[in-house]
Amino acid sequence: MTEWLEDDDGNRASVEYFGSHEAAQSALDSLKDCEDCVNCEHCARCIGCVGCSHCIECERCFDCRDCQECVRCTWCRECRGCTKCTRCYGMMYLYNMDEERA
Asked: Residue 99 to residues 50, 83, 93: CA-CA distances in angstroms?
């Protein structure tokens, strides 16, 4: 049976997923203003994501890393402003390069 830790914002962390009670608590403690996220860590202002890390202002994403302002993305890395992408990589860098050219 999975042991879950939960914070006041409805975020949950599985002890089995993180490997220990301390690691699961640390993951929960690393979330800043996130709500209803599961097994995420080091994210800020995300809602309803699962298994993500180092993301900012994402919503309902799954297993993403280092993304910003994405919605319903899956397995993405370093993206920004994507919607329903799968295995997208590095769009943040392309976005930033376009801004610098403007």
From this structure: 30, 20, 10
Q: How far apart are CA 47 and CA 6, in angstroms?
A: 15
DSSP string, 1-63: ---EEE-TTS-EEEHHHHSSHHHHHHHHHH-BS-BS-BS-BS-BS-BS-BS-BS-BS-BS-BS
Summarize pLDDT for 36-83 with one digit per residue, the tens: 999 999 999 999 999 999 999 999 999 999 999 999 999 999 989 989
